[in-house]
Amino acid sequence: MEFQWHDLAFHREIGSAIDALDGPHFWARLTRVLERHISFDSWVALRFARNGPPLVCAEQALPDGKIDLLFQDYLAALYQLDPFYLAAFEQRVSGFYTLADVAPDNFKMTEYYQRYFRKNIVGDEVHFNVLIDANYTMGFSLGNMRRYDEREVALLTLFSPWVLALMQQRLRYENFGAVPGASEAAEGGQHDLPARFGMLTEKSGRGALTAREIEVAMLSLSGFSSRAIAEKLTISFETVRAHKKHIYSKLGIGSQSELFALFYEPGLHPFAEGSEGDVTTPAGHR
Fold it and tell me: Which residues of 188-216 are buried (b: 16+ CB within 10 A; e: fewer)?
């Protein structure tokens, strides 16, 4: 068997990533192997939790030590609308996923897409997900300012067995009790949606949202059309419409934009009117 010089280099790079499995530079080494063959603009390794915000295992550094404010918003609450986060606990299987694999039918019409994804990731995203247990999944995200082409997706699919195997081995060395980069913004408890929506409906005096209404509200915010929600929940289209009518009435709102505004209440920097021009977020960062 004859090898080209780039074949030998590739195997040497994988060896370097394996050698770093128990050290602090594993994720950077793994990224370096992939970027020799695939073009991408950002990366982050996360541990998704079913009942809480993600923990950041490692992420691409920003120039001059800047803080990615949009990413802090993601960690605080917006992760709940991330199709990769939702797929991690719905499919419950390790594997390689493209945005096309997991995005709902109306994803590009959502406030999440328009006000976060399109501004922060810009073009496309893929994930390597490793199931830890019923409540946790490790995800390794590669974001791109443009759409991945067929060759790149084919290569990533080809690489996925050894990438996932390395991630599985890495689990024993991750300190999830003290993960660097875990967001302080997540401490506000905004992920407790029943309590949050309950507080909002209590103020309106129109009765609390039911568990099913909260489920419909979150699916709608995530980008599922009414017909897709009906199919997903095995209920009729008219029942979904009725749920939406009750949701809007109880919350005292009249649009999806208003629902999104209630879902995520801005702090000092997120999405506040007039604030977007003051936030510097390098394009393509997660």
Answer: eebbebeebbeebbeeeeeebbeeebbbb
Residue 176's pLDDT is what? 83
User: What residues are paired with 143 via a beta bridge?
Assistant: 42, 125
Q: Given 3.30.365.10, 1.10.10.350, 3.30.450.80, 3.30.70.590, which CATH number is that of 5-186?
A: 3.30.450.80
**125 has which bridge partners?**
143
So what's the pLDDT on residue 148? 96
Secondary structure (DSSP) of 113-126? IIIIIHHHTTTEEE
pLDDT means over runs of 10, the chain (286 residues):
61 88 94 92 94 92 73 88 94 93 94 85 91 95 94 96 97 76 42 64 72 92 95 96 93 89 61 38 43
CA 81/CA 197 separation, integer angstroms: 16
Runs of H (alpha helix) within the chain: 5-19, 26-35, 69-76, 83-91, 99-102, 111-112, 118-120, 150-170, 193-204, 211-222, 226-233, 237-251, 256-263
Helices 237-251, 193-204: axis angle to 10 degrees equals: 60
Asked if residue 156 lies in contact with residue 126, where contact means CB atoms within 8 angstroms, the answer is: yes
Domain boundaries, the chain: 5-186, 192-274
Token couple for 122: 């810009």
d(CA 277, CA 179): 31
The answer to pTM > 0.85 is no
Whether the Cβ atoms of residue 127 and residue 95 lie closer than 8 Å to each other: no
Q: What is the pLDDT of residue 204?
A: 61
What does the pLDDT read at residue 118? 82
Task: Find out whether 57 and 138 touch, Cβ atoms under 8 Å.
Answer: yes
